[in-house]
Amino acid sequence: GAWRISQAHVLTRRASAIETLGATTVLCTDKTGTLTENRMTVVSIVNEDARWDQGEKTAISDKTKAILEIALLACPLVPTDSMDLAVHALAEAQIGPNPASFAKHTFIRAYGLRPDLFAVANIMSSVGEANGTAYAKGALEAIAELCQLSGERVLKIREQVDKLGLDGVRVLGVAKASVPNATQEQNLPETPRGLNFEYAGLIGFTDPIRANVPAAVAECRSAGIRVVMITGDYPATAHAIGLKAGLDATDVLTGDDIEALSDEDLALRVKSTSIFARIQPNQKLRIVQSLKANGDIVAMTGDGVNDAPAIKAAHIGIAMGGRGTDVAREASAIVLLDDDFGSIVKTIRLGRRIYDNLRKAIEY
Q1: Per residue in 174-230, pLDDT tens?
Q2: Cβ atoms within 10 Å of 78's Cβ, excluding its own
Q3: pLDDT, tens digit (0-9, with 9 covering 90-100), for 218-246
């Protein structure tokens, strides 16, 4: 049975998992790379008084080019993340060779993602100058906090994000700040919160949904399995992607909502919610535990180090073989070699067949 499943690009690390997988009632999946192809493209650049859209064949204006350049300089010089790769690709086409853009600046310091701040920033100085500039990109909430935007302005920007989100566009905010005496390390704050950022605009990305996903979700439903999407995306974007994938997209529960719920209330909410947005790793674990408390047999997919506790807690942990980390793979019972959601559904079907055959053999 494990050999047969391997023909569908699925590696079984624990043979007993095949039997449990056949009994799965809830399948928790992340969005990027599993339901979608993980091929990001920049489709929109927006701020309050300028806009560029990929679909309209208009040339990129100076204002939108400035937003793109801030986003580029907030990326690493050698990108690996799919969103960074998309920014690099558009900048190469619209601004010119990226190494030339970075060559005008001396890199000073990078601030990575933090659990309490979903944004990254790079501090650069123009060659030969002591003063520098910080370039940041991240979730709208984080960028609004860094820029200390008024509630009224945040509402206006959120309207733009919601409009983009309705088309399944994933949105990042970008901002920049002046950093006096940036070359002196002791002058730099511990986190980007110590800098006075100015809001620049929004960058919108699309990631096409895998062609086989709607059919695979429908097949799960007909087999009595509920599919639940857990993502770090903005709620409107998650809702739009969920609808395209064929999920029950009536209700979206966010990470902040989950924080406010007791374990008993969360166990009630997860019975009817199929889309979870802006979720942090510890909240993934709570969702899995709540589903288990309801008596469901839970399969959980993930790829990152921070997904490992939820993968381990689920009855069946499913790791990504293509872009997954070693930690996620070690915590899992099953590894998807092609990171494809359709492969999970094939494996459940094969798992049920193997289980039926075992039972028939024993009865015989």
Answers
A1: 999 999 887 777 778 889 998 999 999 999 999 999 899 999 999 999 989 999 999
A2: 10
A3: 999 998 999 999 998 889 899 999 999 99
Ramachandran angles phi, psi of 79, nearest 5°: -80, 150
Nearest to 31 by CA among 219, 233, 289: 233
**Which of 326, 327, 312, 321 shows the shortest CA–CA distance to 339?**
321
Both tokens of residue 235? 């709620």
Task: Give yes or no: 257 in active site.
Answer: no
Given the residues 30, 84, 303, 339, select the one marked as catalytic. 30
Cα separation, 52 vs 161, in Å, equals: 14
More confident residue, 154 or 130: 154
**In contact, 178 and 131? CB cutoff 8 Å:** yes
Whole-angstrom Cα distance, residue 357 to residue 279?
A: 39
CA distance 322 to 314: 21
Contact 165, 236 (CB under 8 A): yes
Name which of 182, 152, 180, 122 is nearest 48 in CA terms. 152
Widest distance between CA atoms in the chain:
83
78, two tokens:
């050698």
